[in-house]
Design a protein that fits this description.
Two copies of one chain form a homodimer.
Chain A lengths: L2 H17 L1 H9 L10 H14 L3 E5 L7 E6 L6 E11 L19 E3 L2 E3 L3 H20 L5 E8 L9 H7 L1 H4 L3 E4 L11 E3 L1 E13 L5 E2 L9 H12 L20 H8 L5 H8 L14 H7 L2 E10 L8 E2 L2 E10 L5 H14 L6 E8 L2 E2 L5 H14 L6 E3 L2 E4 L2 H8 L3 E3 L15 E3 H18 L2
Parallel strand pairs in A: 3-6, 3-7, 7-18, 8-16, 9-17
Antiparallel strand pairs in A: 1-2, 2-6, 4-5, 5-19, 9-13, 9-14, 9-15, 10-12, 11-13
Helix pairs in contact in A: 1-4, 1-14, 4-14, 5-13, 8-10, 12-14
Chain lengths: 459, 459
Amino acid sequence: MTVSQTNQLVAKAKEMADKRMASFEDYLRLESVSTEKRQIPETVAYVQSLIEEVGGEVQILDDLGGHPVVYGYFQASEGGNPNKTLLFYNHYDVQPSDPLDEWKTEPFEPTVLDGILYARGVSDNKANFMARLNALSILKESGGFPCNVKFLIEGEEEIGSPNLDPYIEKYTDLFKADACIWEAGSKDKYENYVVSAGMKGIAYFDLEVTTANIDIHSSMAAIIDNPVWRMIHALESMKNIDNDILVEGFYDGVTPLSEKDKEAAANQPFDAEKVKEQYGLTGKLITEGGPVTESEALAFYPTMTVCGFSSGYTGPGIKTVLPKMAKAKLDCRLVPGQDPTHIHDSIRRHLDANGFSDISLTMVGAEGAQRTDLDDPFIDMVVQTAQSVYGEANPVVVSPSMAGTGPSELFEKYLQLPIAGVGAGWANSGAHAPNENIRLNDFYQNIAHMVTLLTAFGV
Amino acid sequence: MTVSQTNQLVAKAKEMADKRMASFEDYLRLESVSTEKRQIPETVAYVQSLIEEVGGEVQILDDLGGHPVVYGYFQASEGGNPNKTLLFYNHYDVQPSDPLDEWKTEPFEPTVLDGILYARGVSDNKANFMARLNALSILKESGGFPCNVKFLIEGEEEIGSPNLDPYIEKYTDLFKADACIWEAGSKDKYENYVVSAGMKGIAYFDLEVTTANIDIHSSMAAIIDNPVWRMIHALESMKNIDNDILVEGFYDGVTPLSEKDKEAAANQPFDAEKVKEQYGLTGKLITEGGPVTESEALAFYPTMTVCGFSSGYTGPGIKTVLPKMAKAKLDCRLVPGQDPTHIHDSIRRHLDANGFSDISLTMVGAEGAQRTDLDDPFIDMVVQTAQSVYGEANPVVVSPSMAGTGPSELFEKYLQLPIAGVGAGWANSGAHAPNENIRLNDFYQNIAHMVTLLTAFGV
């Protein structure tokens, strides 16, 4: 496309977005917080109406437990390619909006300030769903759908998609497609649009140890053992101060980085100082001064994180207590080859072998990692169509794997298709955080990208 | 004393206790929770009236901050010994009464059930103060006070006596005495009355580390360090799984156990199974199978206890957060020779030397250890007078040092006198716990002991 064609397309995207803004805002007003089970039926009905408005067919799948999965289908128009199907994955659920006092607008009252639209769930991922529907509306008005389009829109992504596996397994034929566009994505800190080709997996654990049935006066510490110390010793045995994970079997299945992986990571710019400033970090990055780059670590290296630790008295001043119990939450981010169940079993064996059989270990969340081959032609198509929209000044960046997690491994397992993640976010969209937002210009550009991608896909 | 004389004395103690029960109950109704600053002036006024009722003089000392210190004085009667002075140390403050739902009676409504008197603060230590006053009442009615008697009654014992030092320093002349009876004591699990001759000290610390100014998505753990892990590594470096404290300088000043210490510990019966049952312990005692006995450990060995640890998300389910901060509370029980400030400085140096300069360390409580020489004739006098009341079937036990802590080191420092702790409690008195109680028979016996002790002391 020429610059002028791009400008025209983005202008058309803005026009369509403006026309359908009231629908978008109503969607953002729905408080579809999955962990709190808020307004789920209302949101499902609204998603159905949004798809039907643009001419799609809908099936609500709710026979396998959990919040309903919405299936949407748009048949290729006459003149389009009936043999090509693109699957869009989205979710209609959002994160809780707390801490409320840190929002400058109402989380469920979409508000535009200086070209930025604030609302809970707007970047993750309601805007992306709307962008895709707006793209279909534009195509519908200008000659029809260039290929078949399917939607899988679930309602439990923010709680780890615990019920999605059986739905995709049972409805494999329904969701069958040639490629998948993932739910979200954003521009990076350098204003470059990112295409992500994978996600890390996760294994999330609750650890707990109880050594007595009441809290004890701490003077008894001379003879009575302490569950906090036990938890400290156990966790210390699992990861050393150099961030080496010491659990035997944890790294099983992990393959060394290929030259292609390293190249892909090298192509992702990373500014350590910006990250330190963004989070107010007091120390160095783990990776600083080491052989692994930040981009490599984020994409290719598994992690083990204590997300929470609680025991005993934690208020102000003095309470001389020997606690009866200690609890910790442990989050392991996984790479392809690592299996959450094997991670669980390895940690269990490690605890037992090191004298910590009394520490319980419960896996409360599990998702596998997934990566699409960077040489897959679909990745190239997504990049090329994006580049035509975003322009030479802002080279599109391919991320071999996001640092975060989603259920993409299930799509690969049942549907065997390439997956690429793109969306309307930017570096400060604040997904999961207060003041979540998108910039409207990014939204228009993303709509335009979806138009060019669908057009190219139908060829 | 003959058995019949003892029985007569205990009967007289019961009579006096009954006569003064209403006053006792009113004292127990005062909600003198020092940490919550509840009813402090009312309690001070009531303590003054209780002393004056029995013929003592009172001075309220409140010129040096903190809750007032009550000084009480009873001059030796004619025929008594004007050259001997016994000092009673007590405190009018009590612990908070939570958890309220575990009380079977109202904490501040004294209630007798089956000969057991329930109330917050009854065993620690309002009953002991009343027993001492009742003993003085008995002596007054039967010939007068055999010696001078002083009281130091403070209102901040339960919060670590943070303001007591300057009071004792300034009013050293006022409190000057030949010996001191400490605030509390109890029978042990074998129904033997315990005379304790010392207390451990304490150094209590808040540790805190902040590595970012916001909680971060845990996917960033691939490159960003975690304050929980830092706190775990720091604490692990301070004490190993065998409970050896690894902080250089921590054991400075600790002297090896003497033969006398070992003998004293050996004379204290200890039933590991009973302790395990009492607290519902799931594991072995630290001391089991080792060379140090439980009684030795409780009396003579310092400890380092994590009393609390908090960081990140600790609710149910999954929150994938990399916390910005971690906090821990550390309680070190000290033995004579160990100085809290030196302990602080040693831990600070240890943290710095091990790369944890970013972990802040604040000493929020400090008291030195104190022990009275077991050969001091005052200890023998307390034991002999007790033995005459409690009878041959229940040999009085001398505890060389309680496992707990109090400000007795200040008394030794400024007043240079022997100190012995006795009281009206029993093994299940539940000081600091719900359903705190004393058995009324123990109360009568303790009154009788105070009568015999004061009589012997005046000789």
